[in-house]
Amino acid sequence: RLGHLGQSLGVLFLFNTYFPPHTGYVLHLTFSCISRQSFPVLANIRRRCLSGLNGRWHQIVGVGLGVTLCAVPVIEKQNSISLSNDALIKRAVSLVTDSTSTLLSQTTYALIEALTEYTKAVYTLVSLYKQYANLLGKMNSEEVDAVWQVVIGARVEMTTKQQEYLRLESSWMTALRLSEMAAEAAYQSGADQASVTARSHIQLVKSQVQEVRQLSQKAETKLAEAQTEELIKAQGEESSLPQGILGSTEAGEDPYLRED
Fold it and tell me: Which residue stretches belong to region Disordered (predicted)?
């Protein structure tokens, strides 16, 4: 059986519906159990409604609710970080180094791609020159003209690729200078990590571009050799022509042009 309960239960709630963010209030709920002698009406209800039931309960327990509301200030701890001018400069210079590094990466990629295309065009022209030199003396004039037109087309293509990579090289040099200036600014402002990262990136892209440049320079060297070889063979073919043909050719030329 339950006797007269003299216990009370407290529940604590914290919320800030009607108070500023730095305060809160406490809702304290008190539950008390009161015997049937305190509330005769409840006892009558029990006798009328539960008269036919046999149970273990012989007393009706009334529950009274008492609510106590009190405002308790709650102070939130705020970590106030005072940003000095140096800290703001470091943050800004870090953003600058990131931006210049992105620009340098994009221009480096474009330049490497343009240099690669130019190198391919040079090697194509080298191959055509070698083929033309090997066919000298084996073709008639029409075939020579046809092959030479192909060579001229390859030279135009190579020149176009060269102009493209030179244009991108100018943009890459500008991006490189900006990155170097940003790295120096980061070093001067004390942003050592940003400065080191920027300089490492600069060294990396320089080495990448240098490798591709060496390949293009090697191709240009081979092109010069192929042109020299073709010129020597062409002169040899002219010297092997019959004397009558050479004489008729020279006779129709102006002596001043022939001397030049």
Answer: 235-260
